[in-house]
Write a structure and sequence with these properties.
Blueprint: H1 8-15, H2 32-41, H3 46-54, E1 58-62, H4 66-71, H5 77-86, E2 90-94, H6 100-108, E3 112-115, H7 140-156, E4 160-163, H8 165-173, E5 178-179, H9 182-186, E6 208-214, H10 218-223, E7 227-232, E8 237-238, E9 245-250, E10 256-261, E11 268-271, H11 282-301
Parallel strand pairs: 1-2, 1-3, 3-4, 4-11
Antiparallel strand pairs: 5-8, 6-7, 6-9, 9-10, 10-11
Helix pairs in contact: 2-3, 3-11, 6-7, 7-8
Length: 302
C-alpha cells in the first residue's frame, strides 16, 4: 500500500506504470563541444558557462542512517565524500532528518546525487512483500530522503549514482522488487558478504570479492571489459528491475550487480558493490568521475 506521505513520483510509479509521464519530454544530452561553441558565439554568456564547466559540481550525499547522523559517525560516510572530491566534485552531506520541503529546496541547489550504502534494509511493504526473518530494520528517514531526492533528480534530469543500499532504494522507488536475503532465498555459493562484520582484533572485516559479468551500457564503457572484480558487502539485491531500469551486470550466480537508465535522457547508474571503498580500482574511480562529468553537463544544460 502506498501512503499519502510518500513523494508524488513514488506514488505515481506504483499506481501508474508509465515512466514516460514523469518527464513527458526526455531531454537529450548536449555535447560539451556544442556548449563551448555556443558560448564563444555569445560573449555575454561565455564567462558564466566557463565558470559552470570548470567549477566543481555539487553532489548531494545523504547520511547512511539517521542513527549515524545523530551520533556523527563519519568513518563510512566520509569515504563517499572523499571519492566525490577525488573525482573533481564537491560532496554535500544531506541530513536524513530534514523535512521534505527543506530537502527539496536543498536539492534544487545541487547538480547530482550519490545514494550511499546503509546497514538498513528497504521496507518490503513498498514492493508488496512480507518482511524476511533475516531482513534488517528499515530506516524510514533514509527512505524518505532517497525517494524525495530521486523524484527531484528524475524530473530535472540530474545524474544519480546509487551504491549498495542506494541501488535497492532506486529500484524500489521505480516499482521494482528485491531479493530480501540472498543466502536463504538463492542458496548461492558466491560470497556476497563477510560472515562476520569484525575480525577478532576488532578491526573491520575485509570485503568479499567476486567477479561480475558486464553487459553493454555505461558501466561497460567505463570498464572496457566484459568482466570485473568487485567488492561485496550485502545480503539483498535487485530482483525485478524498476520501470526505466535495465540490468547491466550480474555476479556468477545471477545476482544483479548493476542497473542503468534505459535511454540517454539522464545519467542514472546503480551498482551493488562499493566503489567508494576501492580507491585504487580504475572502474571504481571511473564511476565517480563519470558522475561528476555528467553533473557538469547537466548543470550547463539547465
Amino acid at each position: 500500500m502506498v501512503s499519502e506521505g510518500e513523494p508524488s513520483a513514488y506514488r505515481f510509479f506504483h499506481q501508474e506504470p508509465n515512466p514516460d509521464r514523469l518527464k513527458p519530454v526526455l531531454l537529450e544530452r548536449i555535447p560539451l563541444l556544442r556548449v563551448l561553441l555556443a558560448a564563444r558565439r555569445d560573449a555575454t554568456i561565455a564567462p558564466l558557462m566557463a565558470q559552470q564547466i570548470l567549477s566543481r559540481p555539487r553532489i548531494g550525499v545523504p547520511w547512511r542512517t539517521a542513527a549515524e547522523e545523530a551520533a556523527n559517525q563519519r568513518s563510512k560516510i566520509d569515504k563517499y565524500l572523499q571519492a566525490v572530491e577525488r573525482a573533481g566534485g564537491e560532496g554535500v552531506l544531506l541530513s536524513v532528518s530534514s523535512g521534505s520541503e527543506t530537502l527539496k529546496r536543498k536539492a534544487e541547489q545541487l547538480d547530482a546525487f550519490l545514494l550511499t550504502g546503509s546497514p538498513a534494509d528497504v521496507d518490503p511493504s513498498h514492493f508488496g512483500a512480507k518482511r524476511h526473518p533475516a531482513a534488517a530494520d528499515a530506516d524510514a528517514s533514509r527512505e524518505r530522503t532517497d525517494f524525495t531526492l530521486l523524484e527531484h533528480a528524475l524530473v530535472t534530469c540530474k545524474p544519480v549514482l546509487a551504491i549498495c543500499y542506494g541501488i535497492q532504494s532506486l529500484n524500489v522507488f521505480l516499482g521494482g522488487s528485491l531479493v530480501q536475503d540472498i543466502p536463504t532465498e538463492l542458496g548461492t555459493k558466491v560470497c556476497h558478504s563477510p560472515e562476520e562484520d569484525e575480525l577478532p582484533d576488532g578491526s573491520e572485516a575485509p570485503d568479499a570479492i567476486h567477479a561480475a559479468g558486464i553487459e553493454s551500457g555505461r558501466v561497460f564503457a567505463l570498464s572496457n571489459a566484459a568482466q570485473a572484480e568487485v567488492n561485496s558487502w550485502h545480503h539483498q539485491s535487485v530482483q525485478k528491475p524498476g520501470l526505466g531500469l535495465r540490468i547491466t551486470a550480474r555476479a556468477p550466480d545471477g545476482v544483479v550487480e548493476a542497473v542503468e537508465w534505459t535511454d540517454n535522457s539522464n545519467w542514472v547508474v546503480g551498482v551493488q558493490w562499493h566503489p567508494e571503498r576501492m580507491p585504487a580500482d580504475a572502474l571504481a574511480q571511473a564511476l565517480f568521475q563519470d558522475l561528476v562529468t555528467n553533473a557538469r553537463l547537466a548543470r550547463v544544460e539547465r
